[in-house]
Amino acid sequence: MDPEDRPRPRGDAADRLATEDLDPYSQDELTERIVLLEAEIARVTRHRANAAAHRAAADALFGKKG
Cα 29 to the chain's mean position, in Å? Predict the structure, then answer.
C-alpha cells in the first residue's frame, strides 16, 4: 500500500480540528480561523502538486513501477 493510500492516523492535527468545539469562538474568531484554514488548504494543495510533479518526473526518468 502506498503511503498516500493509508488512512489518516487518528489524533493528527486535522482530526483534532474536525472535532474541536466551535461554540466558544466569536464570529470574528471564526472568520479568522476560516482564513487560516484556507491558507493551509492552499499550502497543502501546492505541496501535493509539487509532489505529483516530482513523482511524474521520477516515473518518466525511471519508468513507472507497477
Answer: 22
Residues near 15 by beta carbon (within 8 Å), at least 6 away in sequence: 8, 9
Split the chain (66 residues) into runs of 10 and give each run's mean pLDDT: 61 87 97 97 97 94 78
d(CA 34, CA 36): 5
Instruction: Output b/e per residue, 4-38; b: 16+ Cβ within 10 A.
Output: eeeeeeeeeeeeeeeeeeeeeeeeeeeeeeeeeee
Positive or negative, the CA dihedral 42, 46, 48, 49 is: positive
The answer to whether the Cα torsion of 12, 18, 23, 24 is positive or negative is positive
